[in-house]
Amino acid sequence: NAGVTQTPKFRVLKTGQSMTLLCAQDMNHEYMYWYRQDPGMGLRLIHYSVGEGTTAKGEVPDGYNVSRLKKQNFLLGLESAAPSQTSVYFCASSPGMTSADSYEQYFGPGTRLTVT
Amino acid sequence: AQKVTQAQTEISVVEKEDVTLDCVYETRDTTYYLFWYKQPPSGELVFLIRRNSFDEQNEISGRYSWNFQKSTSSFNFTITASQVVDSAVYFCALSVMDSSYKLIFGSGTRLLVRP
Questions:
Q1: Which range (A21-35, A41-55, A66-80, B46-60) has the least confidence?
Q2: Burial, B5: exposed, middle or buried (Cβ in 10 Å; 0-12, 13-18, 19+)?
Q3: What gap in Å lies between CA B14 and CA A76, rounded to an integer?
Q4: Which residue, of A66, B67, B86, B94, has the fewest CB within 10 Å?
Q5: For residue A9, how many C-alpha atoms fall within 13 Å in the half-sphere facing its CB?
Q6: Mean pLDDT by 10 residues, chain B (115 residues)
């Protein structure tokens, strides 16, 4: 089991460019999340999904879009990158309500994004 | 509203000292989960412990121990006989009781253990 993987690990963008971050999990988890981590602020939720084909906004959704076309993948898109989106992005997955471990979240290794 | 406060931004200790990391949470829910994660310099998040709101027993795992007190809404983490490898950022988190099961994180405490 690879667990939760994220692609790419590092990326540098120019302001206005677009990109997609890919998160994949092989644990058949229902729930998936995208967080961003900024210095001194802990992790904040961007968007999440409670199942294939569903998405919902988190605490800081502006400037991001997401898609969950397949259960195992959760994509985070930046349509027009801004320097304020320089951050470390973490993906996580969780079994959801059907499991006794529903509150457990498994994190990917992170993607470090710099927007110049 | 749910909130997690880690008031200690940075702590520096000498190896073999004991150190306690504080975590105070706010929630109106009676059922919730609390977590601690470790983020070493390599950047990944390492799960340490999960505790549900109905289990106030303290937990010990090797040099790590956790003290959960609902009366003060605190879930503190103690490292006994600290080691250089304990140097990391430690996050406390609260799982909210809505359909998202999302985590609310504290801002983290950076622990530096000096040799």
A1: B46-60
A2: middle
A3: 42
A4: B67
A5: 4
A6: 94 97 94 93 92 86 93 96 97 86 93 97
Identify from B29, B89, B102 which residue to disrupt to test chain A contact, counting A C-beta atoms within 10 A and taking the largest count. Answer: B102
Residue partners of B72: CB distance under 8 A and separation at least 6: B24
Nearest residue in chain B measured CA to CA from A41: B107
- Does A58 sit within 8 Å of B101, measured CB to CB? no
Say which of A40, A43, A96 has its CB closest to residue B101: A96
d(CA B84, CA B53): 32
Chain A residues with beta carbon closer than 8 angstroms to that of B37 = 107
CB pairs under 8 A between A and B: 57
**Residue tagged 């940075």 (tokens):** B10
CB-count burial class (<10 Å; 0-12, 13-18, 19+) for A77? middle
Helix (H) or strand (E) holding B109: strand B109-114
- Give the nearest partner residue to B105 out of A43, A88, A96, using CB atoms: A43
Tell me how many degrees the CA angle A53-A42-A60 measures, rounded to the nearest 5.
Answer: 40
The reported pLDDT for the residue numbered B68 is 94
